[in-house]
Design brief:
With 342 residues, this protein is α/β, with parallel strands linked by helices. Helices cover 42% and strands 18% of the residues. The longest helix has 16 residues, at 252-267.
Length: 342
């Protein structure tokens, strides 16, 4: 039994999800004739209370499209230093949109409205024009932390005052909604655009959606084509997302419970230095300085447990749909036996 906790992207479709995919009615989505894609887009748009939704093959492409929609070359967006759009999208915001980032030194990937206000460039022409603010919920490098909703509202007020667009990278927004007992509509009322992912906590093989107003989403359709993101009979993938919305949302609480139990087990290990607070399904921890993190990873790998290093001495485990209770009990047993010469 291999226990893969590298990411919640490693899940494979269940038999029930595969059956739903194979039963999907499909068409050519480039002609906008795939009925299952349209059903998914309309359902998610209604869920968030936004005008339009557009299905994408990846969250990165959805985020990059949003940045392209809201900026012009030479402008600047504000985001956290840990933001996915800055760290893990291959420099796409500069390559695709010709924009730079003003990085905020936040806490666990989150920042305040005052920090946003302070980060806005002066209006003199020799500064890059600040045009956009981006946040991530939950925060990946912040250990799956959830934003305080009131602070999001405060940032929105800053955006309104300074005519800035506001984008949410909601790759794991489903985890945040379950953990905080919030609604998708709350977020749809605030943001100019939102990307949501189906291939993480919800267990789909592929797919994300970008949401926005009618005008922007018409432009997004063209940008998706430019980026090479048009798909033909994509309804097979959209059917997986529809199945996930019906069946895999509430169970996210189970992933959160298991992550917290892993954190408690790690906290009992003498080799562990710190554990980031755990709110959702991501566990980030640091070993004591005397312990080689690569040796720790190898030790777990020898027990068929896979985790990853996050850099800066941090290690990560992510619980997910395919991480069963049997695997969970096995992992906790393995952790209880770990010893290192220090």
């Amino acid at each position: 039994m291999t226990i893969d906790l590298r990411s919640d992207t490693v899940t494979k479709p269940s038999t029930e999800m595969l059956n739903a995919m194979m039963a999907a009615k499909v068409g050519d989505d480039v002609f906008r004739e795939d009925p299952t894609v349209r059903e998914l887009e309309e359902r998610v748009a209604a869920l968030f209370g936004m005008d339009r939704a557009l299905f994408f093959p990846s969250g990165t492409m959805a985020n990059q499209t949003a940045i392209k929609l809201h900026t012009q070359p030479g402008e600047q967006l504000i985001c956290d230093k840990y933001a996915h759009v800055y760290n893990y999208e291959s420099g796409g915001l500069s390559f695709n949109s010709g924009v730079s980032c003003k990085l905020i030194d936040g806490e666990k990937g989150m920042f305040t409205a005052q920090q946003v206000s302070d980060a806005i460039n002066p209006s003199e022409y020799w500064y890059a024009k600040t045009s956009m603010v981006e946040i991530e919920n939950t925060t990946n490098k912040g250990g799956g932390a959830c934003w305080d909703f009131q602070e999001i509202l405060n940032i929105k007020e800053v955006c309104i005052r300074h005519d800035l667009r506001f984008h949410l990278d909601g790759a794991r927004i489903w985890n945040a909604l379950v953990a905080k007992n919030e609604s998708a509509r709350q977020y749809g009322d605030i943001f100019d655009s939102i990307s949501v992912c189906f291939s993480k906590g919800l267990g789909c093989p592929v797919g994300s959606i970008l949401l926005g107003d009618e005008v922007k989403m018409q432009q997004a359709l063209r940008i998706r084509k430019v980026f090479g993101g048009n798909m033909r009979q994509a309804g097979y993938l959209a059917a997986a997302a529809l199945y996930a919305l019906d069946n895999n949302m509430e169970r996210l609480a189970e992933d959160h419970r298991k992550a917290k139990e892993i954190g408690a087990a790690l906290g009992r290990l003498p080799v562990v230095k710190t554990i980031d607070p755990i709110e959702t399904n991501i566990v980030i921890f640091e070993l004591k300085d005397t312990i080689d993190e690569l040796e720790f990873i190898k030790l777990l790998d020898s027990q068929k447990v896979q985790i990853i290093a996050m850099g800066g001495g941090k290690l990560r485990m992510v619980t997910h749909l395919d991480y069963t209770q049997t695997m969970h009990e096995r992992l906790l047993a393995i952790l209880s036996t770990i010893t290192f010469d220090t």
